[in-house]
Amino acid sequence: MFSLGKKEIMGLAVDIGTSSITAVVFTAPNCLPTSKPCIKNVYRASLDMPRKPRAETLERQITTQLRDLLKTIRASLKKNPDFAYVGLSAPFYISRLITLTSTRPKASAPITKEEILTLIKKGEKSFTEEYISPKENLKLHLFGSTLLKTIINGYRIPEIVGATGKTLTLFVRYETTAKKYINELYDLFAPLVSEKKLHITSLPTACFYAIGSAIPFKEGLVHVDIGGEISEISIIYDDVLEKIITIPLGNASLARKVSEYFNVSFKEGESLLRQFSKEVLDSKKSENIAAITNHHVREWCVALSAALTTYAKENDIPSNIVLSGGGAFLKAYRQSFSSELLHKTHTSETPHITIADPKLFQNEFSAMSTLTGPRDFGVTCLALLCSRNIL
């Protein structure tokens, strides 16, 4: 996708969340699978959301914050980045894993790359048509079609080009968003990188690809990203991103409850939560925030349990849990993953919980000290993939 001729490249990775945006500028020796990027600068912007925003209001505020942040980045750099990776959170994209099956007319004929691409293209058409009503004037832009698993005659075969067989099955994850939104992103990033050098993906997909280098998941895992307005749950099984589930509760909802109780601003509510997590507040405030947090997390657990139970009717739920996002620093979320919660979803094992701190990738970077805590996990994954030209 990008030129590999330079001795050193500079990249930009941007994590667009529902209550904040985080961006990093990094350098790397080259876009190679073994590249170890060096984080140079970290940029942050957060939204002040005293009330839960409507979708169009959220998009508008995120766009304003992104425009200002990109201006700051451009002003701080002596030259433009060679390329950029942007990770979208729900509700800014639609994603689905589709199983495509083809009965081949001649089983003895070798499978070609063109044959695979034709089948993937056929899946693209059915995927986009599913989300467009003839009555709606909605144009979608497909920004991702990732081949995750290939099966021939019922057997999983990693490399299928040149193989033979009667039945070919592909597992492909498609990702799309509104054409209008994509054009808006192109315009916002134009002063820094051209369309050809701007790669857009979803954060669950970026984390899925990066996480394997830090956390073995042969037994599968559940990646829970506790964002601002929304939590995204990625179920990874058999080396495939099987399902992405969203629940409309995140840490911004909790910050609003804290700010309302203490009659302070939304940002002060966020600050109180951080102080509460570090156990530096007086006992009275801590007790009050603990009560608010526990009530909120119980609501969150009900929504999570309902989503996982629906999935578990036909699938196993892995017991390995990875928590990331701004909410992962609170103990209440971590403690909510009791064996009782997972038992309701047909999992018999005691959950093993990992906090997705960027330090999990410390051997993959030459310098990354400015990235701290689970809130930076998404942008860390994007920077790693960007430096290695993956996706």
Please give a structural write-up.
The protein has a 5-stranded mixed beta sheet, with helices on both faces. A 5-stranded mixed beta sheet has the order 12-11-10-13-14, with helices on both faces. Strands 5-8-6-7 form a 4-stranded antiparallel beta sheet. It is α/β, with parallel strands linked by helices and 391 residues long. The protein has helices spanning 55-76, 113-130, 179-189, 203-211, 251-262, 266-277, 283-312, 331-336, 339-343, 377-387, and strands at 9-16, 20-28, 38-46, 83-88, 94-103, 140-152, 155-156, 167-178, 198-202, 221-226, 231-237, 240-247, 320-324, 352-355. The longest helix has 30 residues, at 283-312. Helix 1 (55-76) packs parallel to helix 3 (179-189) and helix 4 (203-211) packs across helix 10. The protein is built from 10 helices and 14 strands. It folds into 3 domains: 9-92 and 180-215 and 357-387, Ribonuclease H-like superfamily/Ribonuclease H (Nucleotidyltransferase, domain 5), CATH 3.30.420.10; 94-178, 2-Layer Sandwich (Dna Ligase, domain 1); 221-355, ATPase, nucleotide binding domain (Nucleotidyltransferase, domain 5, 2-Layer Sandwich). The mean pLDDT is 88.
